[in-house]
């Protein structure tokens, strides 16, 4: 279903080959971000299995207290995800609905510890909590920012510097980076965030702090979207 919808959008684009090549990567990523939230779209993962508890935060580098959504009673477990679905860390902090057969028993030895499953991205149960921020190894010349506890993934982040919005680059470990050699001015840091459903919001981070998880001064959150599935 997802691949079909992506292909339909690509076919409806301009017939100009140069324009098609330049836009394809962005369009495919946009469609993957949104398609994974469609109610009829479950991604077949072939198999799921258990793994040992790791307190190091995994590839997403969740140091300190877990985001509010991760501790909600609706969240059954924390999971590690396959590389194809990791989407270069875009899915860090995402909430997933897993479809499988409850109550089934497999006595075959070759099936021990492996279960056929499929998944669907859903809106996280953030309640009344807001988006949070964590810095890693940052200073005015180098910003590495983690955006945590969003209802749905953040797909674009800009930082305000000298009255201009500058695009940050997503890292492989769930952060957003600005390292263009220009220093940030003193004071709170303004950010503009775009969610996977296209919602745009602005917030202000009080300071660069590499030791603590910070609340935004505007207390923003992606609003509940009735068109998307929920946990």
Per CATH, the superfamily of the largest domain is: Expansin, cellulose-binding-like domain
Number of helices: 3
In CATH, the architecture of the largest domain is Sandwich
The amount of beta strand, in percent, is 15-25%
| Class computed from helices, strands and strand pairing | alpha+beta
Order of secondary-structure elements: HHEHEEEEEEEEEEE
Terminus-to-terminus distance: 21 Å
Number of domains: 3
Helical coverage, percent range: 10-25%
Shape: globular
Instruction: Please give the largest β-sheet.
Output: 5 strands, antiparallel
Strand order of the largest sheet: 8-9-5-4-12
By DSSP, the count of extended strands is 12
Instruction: Report the average pLDDT across residues.
Output: 75
CATH uppermost class of the largest domain:
Mainly Beta
**How large is the radius of gyration?**
19 Å
Kindly report the CATH topology of the largest domain.
Answer: Immunoglobulin-like
Which residues sit in consecutive blocks of at least 5 with pLDDT less than 50? 5-35, 38-44
């Amino acid at each position: 279903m997802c691949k079909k919808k992506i292909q339909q959008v690509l076919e409806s684009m301009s017939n100009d080959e140069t324009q098609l090549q330049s836009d394809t990567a962005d369009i495919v990523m946009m469609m993957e971000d949104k398609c994974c939230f469609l109610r009829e779209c479950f991604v077949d993962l072939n198999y799921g299995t258990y793994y040992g508890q790791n307190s190091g935060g995994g590839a997403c580098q969740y140091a300190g207290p877990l985001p509010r959504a991760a501790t909600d009673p609706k969240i059954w477990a924390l999971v590690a995800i396959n590389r194809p679905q990791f989407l270069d860390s875009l899915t860090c902090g995402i909430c997933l609905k897993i479809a499988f057969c409850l109550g089934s028993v497999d006595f075959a030895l070759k099936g021990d510890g492996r279960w056929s499953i499929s998944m669907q991205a859903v809106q996280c149960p953030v309640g009344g909590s807001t988006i949070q921020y964590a810095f890693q190894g940052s200073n005015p010349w180098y910003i590495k920012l983690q955006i945590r506890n969003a209802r749905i993934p953040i797909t674009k982040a800009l930082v305000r510097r000298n009255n201009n919005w500058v695009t940050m680059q997503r890292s492989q470990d769930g952060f957003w980076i600005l390292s263009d050699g220009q220093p940030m001015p003193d004071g709170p840091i303004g950010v503009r965030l775009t969610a996977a459903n296209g919602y745009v919001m602005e917030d202000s981070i009080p300071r660069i702090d590499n030791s603590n998880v910070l609340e935004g001064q505007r207390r923003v959150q992606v609003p509940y979207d009735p068109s998307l599935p929920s946990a």
